C-alpha cells in the first residue's frame, strides 16, 4: 500500500518545533491541503499560522490529557493522515533514585499518549478512507542506552504498540509508519547530548514521504538510523513485517 500526501488533510502533534515543525513544513511543501498543528499551547503555533495562513489550523492536544486528544478527534473529523510526533525525554539509568518516576512520566506521554491517539483517531481515519497513522519512535526503540534507559524503555514500548497498530489498522486500509530517527538537531537531541552528531529534522519528514510512496512500515531517516536499520533489516523483514502480510 502506497500513499501520496498531496491534497490531504494532516494532523501533527508537537507541531510547533523540532521534528514536528519540519514535518508540517515539508508536508505543506509537498502539497498537503491542510495541516492541523496539534500543540499543548495554541500560541506556540502562531508563527506557523503567519507563514501558511489558512492551510495551518492550530488545535490543542496534550498527550498527557486524554480528554484533549478525544476532543481534537471530534474537531478534526476530516483528517486523513495522523502523525504522532510529540514525546518527552528524561535521561536516567535503572539505578537512579528517580528511575521509576522517570519511567512512569515517559510512559504516560510516549506510550499511553500514543494509545489514546490511536483510539481517538483510528475511527476518523477509517471514516475518511483509511489514510495514515505515523508514529515517531527512535533508534532507542531498538537499542538501549544505559544513561537514558527509562527513555529507551518507553520508546521500545511505543514501537511494540506501533507494530500492533500496523496489524490492527490494516483491515481498515490505514497505512502505519514506524519512524526511527537517530540524533536529530532538536531541543530533545540537545538534551540527550547529541548536538555534535545531530542531523537536520527535515530528513525525518522527507524519509516519511518516501516511505509513504513506497508503502514501507519502517523509516530510518538519518545516517545513524540507516546504519541501525541496515543491521535490523533482515529481522524486520522476516519477523516484524510478515505478521500482517
Strands of the widest sheet, in order across it, are 3-2-1-4-5-6-7
The residue ranges in which pLDDT falls below 50 over 5 or more consecutive positions are none
Oligomer: single chain
Percent of residues in beta strands? 5-15%
Instruction: Tell me the name of the CATH homologous superfamily.
Output: NAD(P)-binding Rossmann-like Domain
CATH topology: Rossmann fold
Write the layout of secondary structure elements.
Layout: E1 9-13, H1 18-29, E2 34-39, H2 46-52, E3 56-60, H3 66-75, E4 81-84, H4 99-110, H5 112-127, E5 132-136, H6 149-170, E6 175-179, H7 187-191, H8 202-214, E7 218-219, H9 223-240
Parallel strand pairs: 1-2, 1-4, 2-3, 4-5, 5-6, 6-7
Helix pairs in contact: 1-8, 3-5, 4-6, 5-6
Amino acid at each position: 500500500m502506497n500513499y501520496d500526501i498531496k491534497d490531504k488533510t494532516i494532523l501533527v502533534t508537537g507541531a510547533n518545533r523540532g521534528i514536528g515543525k519540519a514535518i508540517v513544513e515539508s508536508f505543506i511543501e509537498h502539497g498537503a491541503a491542510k495541516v492541523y498543528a496539534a500543540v499543548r499551547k495554541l500560541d506556540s503555533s502562531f508563527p506557523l499560522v503567519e507563514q501558511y495562513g489558512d492551510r495551518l489550523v492550530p488545535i490543542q492536544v496534550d498527550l498527557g490529557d486524554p480528554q484533549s486528544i478525544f476532543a481534537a478527534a471530534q474537531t478534526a473529523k476530516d483528517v486523513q493522515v495522523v502523525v504522532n510526533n510529540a514525546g518527552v525525554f528524561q535521561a536516567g539509568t535503572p539505578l537512579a533514585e528517580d528511575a521509576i518516576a522517570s519511567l512512569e512520566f515517559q510512559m504516560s506521554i510516549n506510550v499511553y499518549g500514543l494509545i489514546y491517539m490511536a483510539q481517538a483517531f483510528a475511527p476518523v481515519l477509517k471514516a475518511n478512507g483509511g489514510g495514515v497513522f505515523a508514529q515517531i519512535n527512535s533508534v532507542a526503540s531498538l537499542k538501549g542506552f544505559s544513561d537514558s534507559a527509562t527513555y529507551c524503555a518507553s520508546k521500545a514500548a511505543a514501537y511494540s504498540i506501533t507494530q500492533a497498530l500496523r496489524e490492527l489498522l490494516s483491515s481498515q486500509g490505514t497505512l502505519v509508519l514506524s519512524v526511527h530517527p537517530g540524533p536529530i538537531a532538536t531541543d530533545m537531541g540537545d538534551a540527550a547530548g547529541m548536538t555534535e552528531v545531530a542531523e537536520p529534522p527535515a530528513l525525518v519528514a522527507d524519509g516519511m514521504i518516501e516511505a509513504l510512496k513506497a508503502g514501507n512500515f519502517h523509516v530510518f531517516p538519518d545516517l545513524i538510523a540507516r546504519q541501525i536499520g541496515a543491521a535490523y533489516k533482515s529481522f524486520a523483514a522476516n519477523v516484524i513485517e510478515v505478521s500482517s502480510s
